[in-house]
Amino acid sequence: MTRRVEIGWPTLGTAVIAELDERNAALAQSLWDALPYQSLQGHALVAGHHLYHVAPIHALLHAPVTYKVDRREAPDGTLFASRLQHLGIKYGRLTEPMPAVPIGQVLPEHLDTLIESGEAIWEALYRTKKPVIAEVRRAGEPGGHRLPRLTVADPEIDALIGDVHAETERIWLRPPEDLAALHEGCIPSGAGSFETVLTTLVFVNGETRPLGYACFAGLVRAAYEDMPLESLRHMARVLAATPAEFLGYCGLTKVHEFTTRALAGLDRISSRDDFAALMAHLALYVNCVGGWNLQLFPWHLGDDLRRKGTLE
């Protein structure tokens, strides 16, 4: 069966079509099953010519991987699924030696449009700060948007998942108010030595990304890889409490609140599946916050600090 996916950016007036393949069949199918959806479009800030966005697909965190490539050597237009919960597309030169998981390829006749879109998305992220929303759908079918909602047995934990899901939906396509206020210099706790703001923004970015990518997403993988439930509870407490507390101090009160409620309720969870469901929702929520933080961050302040020398 031919499965073609359209990825469009309405504010740019551009779209490309990619064809999914069987190199990582489970991940390609999880994307296909999740369509359609919308998401804030991001762009790599270190690796080079690479687009990515947070995909509302819990299976990306744990579905089996059967084939990897060096992302630098993959052809332009390769579509990747990432355990960082990203859907990525290479559109030019990359420098980061990262093993990556291909699931499809942009059609050759759409590569010029992909390059044009990538350049415009970089400008939006780096300089104009105008959010670009990606719309992902099955080619030839209507668009739309939905976020998956998992359920668990314990009513208190299920209510927490409901609250996290609702907040994730609320901020999915618009920045969280507390994060936007932080970027405007409104920091009630006084975080930022000698009234600085950029320092706080740097540290918030440095804690938000690993809390979503490594902590919550890693705990989902550990649950699916049969780590004992008591060990999962212990690692959640070890890994999540301190960064969440710091982010709360810096102004991300919802991140702190949800994490605190989750850690307080761990003993109510009776199965690895329910543990994974809670952590998956926290991962998606924090990864969404992290995406908005990258969009709002004043990257242009680095214009005068450039890499010396050029690559061959």
Task: Give an account of the 3D structure.
With 312 residues, the protein is an alpha+beta fold. The chain has 2 domains: 135 residues, Beta Barrel (Cyclophilin); 145 residues, no CATH class. The chain has 8 helices and 9 strands. It has an 8-stranded antiparallel barrel. The radius of gyration is 19 Å and the shape is globular. The mean pLDDT is 96.
Features:
312 residues, alpha+beta, Cyclophilin
CA radius of gyration: 19 Å
Helical percentage: 40-55%
What shape does the CA trace take? globular
Count every helix, treating DSSP H or I runs of 4 or more residues as helices: 8
* Low-pLDDT stretches: none
Number of strands: 9
- Let me know the average pLDDT: 96
Major beta sheet, strand line-up: 1-2-8-6-7-4-3-9
Q: Assign the structural class, choosing from mainly alpha, mainly beta, alpha/beta, alpha+beta, or little secondary structure.
A: alpha+beta
Largest sheet: 8 strands, antiparallel, barrel
Proportion of strand residues: 15-25%
In N-to-C order, the SSE pattern is EEHEEEEEEHEHHHHHH
Distance between the termini: 42 Å
Number of domains: 2
Question: Could you provide a short overview of the structure?
Answer:
The protein has eight helices and nine strands. The protein has helices at residues 25-34, 111-128, 155-171, 177-183, 198-224, 229-250, 253-264, 272-296, and strands spanning 4-9, 14-20, 37-43, 48-54, 69-70, 78-82, 86-94, 99-106, 133-138.
List the helices and strands and how they pair.
Elements: E1 4-9, E2 14-20, H1 25-34, E3 37-43, E4 48-54, E5 69-70, E6 78-82, E7 86-94, E8 99-106, H2 111-128, E9 133-138, H3 155-171, H4 177-183, H5 198-224, H6 229-250, H7 253-264, H8 272-296
Antiparallel strand pairs: 1-2, 1-9, 2-8, 3-4, 3-9, 4-7, 5-8, 6-7, 6-8
Helix pairs in contact: 3-8, 5-6, 5-8, 6-7, 7-8
